[in-house]
Amino acid sequence: MALYHYGLSKPPRDQRRRRWWAVAVLVLCALVGPFVVAGAVQAWLAGDVAEALMQTLVSILCLSGVGSAVWGFVDSFRGERLPDGGPGQPSR
After folding, report:
1. How many helices (H) and strands (E) does the chain have?
2. What's the DSSP call for residue 87?
3. Rounded to an integer, what is the distance from CA 58 to the centroid of its chain?
4. pLDDT digit string (tens) for 67-85?
């Protein structure tokens, strides 16, 4: 969010683009996530703590990516139904 204010990154301009970004992130995280989780479990079972911690961190990022993508997708549809300036605007 802070990057938006500094002009280094710009949010999606409309709800359709926001939906496409949400779908792209969801597909990427859903495809990569199971393999990373399996790798983290194998690393913990093998006793390699450094690799296990790193893969656990990446798996947490994948899971949060899935959650964020689902939230962005739902929020993009919610934003179309509400009038501009009304209460309950989608979070950005």
Report:
1. 3, 0
2. S
3. 12
4. 989 998 888 887 666 555 5
